[in-house]
Amino acid sequence: MIKLAVNGCLGKMGQRILNLAFADSDFIVKACMERPGHSELNSKIGDVAVTDDLNVISAADLVIDFSAPSAAMDLLAIALKYKKPMVIGTTGLDAKQIDRLKSEAKVIPIVFSPNMSVGVNVLFALVKAGAEKLKDYQVSIIEEHHIHKKDAPSGTAKKLAEIVNAQVKSKIGDIQSIREDEIIGNHQVKFESELDTIVLSHSAKTRDIFAMGALRAAKWIKDKPAGFFTMQDVLA
């Protein structure tokens, strides 16, 4: 049984991860963390009190983080202190913060992905295959999310652009970001020439696809040695 800690436990993703973890006999939830000043600190999720003390991860085998970039960096320091593996799905990290993750992954195992969904990671592979074959095509990306999402473009859209730009001659410029209603997450990559158009897309119907992916990554990383991993490694 995996003793689990979740940071960002009262966010949309944190709540879904906890709901699924409580229902999964492979997990026992040991710690639930939220940002300092949150109105629901000291409330309980199951029989676990919500706290802003990150040191509670000492009682867990590993920690899943869906918080904010600065909070993820704060948690990283504590995870290093206790040598706890991390699964990080937080988006909006800048290049310097990602470089720090890669550096500290020499000490602890870290799975970092802008999208934990199995389906989106299949989309990454399909887009890579398309970009390798369609180097002369014009490529555009559109992503849609709910109005509460803070970062734009999404981490997933940035990753898609990175994959495409490594292959095609005409690089992607601006990514079209739409923030509307309660859209969970839609991503579309369009390859276009004078002769044809190819569209690859993914639409999330429920946040559970991301939560399930995060828990799958947690099971995978539990006994791994130090290293920097992505969902591509988890799914390999």
Uncertain parts:
none
Structural class: alpha/beta
The figure for the number of domains is 2
Count of alpha/pi helices? 7
The count of β-strands is 12
Distance between the termini: 23 Å
Describe this structure in words.
By secondary structure, this protein is α/β, with parallel strands linked by helices. It has two domains: 2-116 and 208-235, NAD(P)-binding Rossmann-like Domain (Rossmann fold, 3-Layer(aba) Sandwich), CATH 3.40.50; 118-203, Dihydrodipicolinate Reductase, domain 2 (2-Layer Sandwich). Helices cover 34% and strands 25% of the residues. It has helices spanning 12-22, 69-82, 95-104, 118-133, 155-165, 208-221, 231-235; strands at residues 2-7, 27-33, 44-45, 48-51, 62-65, 86-88, 109-112, 138-145, 176-179, 186-192, 197-203, 227-229. Strands 3-4-2-1-5-6-7-12 form an eight-stranded mixed sheet, sandwiched between helices. Strands 9-8-10-11 form a four-stranded mixed sheet, covered by helices on one side. Helix 1 links the parallel strand 1 and strand 2 (27-33). Helix 1 (12-22) crosses helix 6. The longest helix is centred in the middle third of the chain and has 16 residues, at 118-133. It is globular, with a radius of gyration of 18 Å. The model has no long low-confidence stretch (mean pLDDT 96).
